[in-house]
């Protein structure tokens, strides 16, 4: 975190006493497990992070903003691998026992200590430029769908398709480096419904009957995810009279969009009248979430976001990190939606679904 301001709990989150909030969705261990012996789940996830090291090392080596990047990238790979091996021997070492938040935090800390601020900056900029060029066409295709329910479903599929651009997944990083990714092809190739968690029909009913006054959306990746997935959906909310707050990371992490990057993206997409393809965007607000990881603990967000979110009646957590690996079971004082694609076999196994399956979890609060 660069800011010295105090972090606070997200105000719409039910208190731990009310909901027993735990940020990490998957239980890596239970109280009965031996504290000195790694559990099978811990070993599985440690290996997942070990397998991601080569792609991170490759990105770090090509970071031209860091002197001696090749040597420092090798140091990163070795240091992170050593810590992960330590955790296999003693899960209580290095601040453990490990969970997805700790494993992400250690990785980011090592990169930053070695001078790597944003090893995915180049690819993020390239993907943002591509997605911006496609934004108008994607919006027009959505607008051409007259049936409200079908248009909503198309927007939702767009969010899933955009969420594929995730370089934190070793498999997807490899696919991306070879072939790139087509947004429209991804829309067509989504796994068929019903998804592993599929509350879309219930959400459609609510959508047809209610206009939320304010929605807070925790956004995920750069490129197609934010520009072709989230922003068309946010624009539809704006058109329906909802004020929309987009909450983005404070600091770079993998290819997640950051607060400054999101401000720049929105400024490029708005016309001279402050509109997004004919829709007034004055009710579109950008907030710094205070977060610096691809996952999020909602007991620690920025005061700015807490203030902006206090009167919202819809919370959306988008992406595997924020909406599935953390916060899938988080309970809120208002309606909430967790939406993301399953991009790790370990997550698919936990949910009883398929790799690249989709999660659309909607919780409705009847009164507030």
Automatic annotation (TrEMBL):
Keyword Cell inner membrane: no
BP GO annotations: coenzyme A biosynthetic process
One GO MF term attached to the UniProt entry: ATP binding
SUPFAM superfamilies in alphabetical order: AF1104-like
Domain Damage-control phosphatase ARMT1-like metal-binding stretches: 52-359
Known cofactor(s): Mn(2+); Ni(2+)
Keywords: Hydrolase, Manganese, Metal-binding, Nickel
Keyword Hydrolase attached: yes
Gene3D superfamilies: AF1104-like (1.20.1700.10), Uncharacterised protein PF01937, DUF89, domain 2 (1.10.285.20), Uncharacterised protein PF01937, DUF89, domain 3 (3.40.50.10880)
Protein name from the UniProt record: DUF89 domain-containing protein
An annotated GO cellular component: nucleus
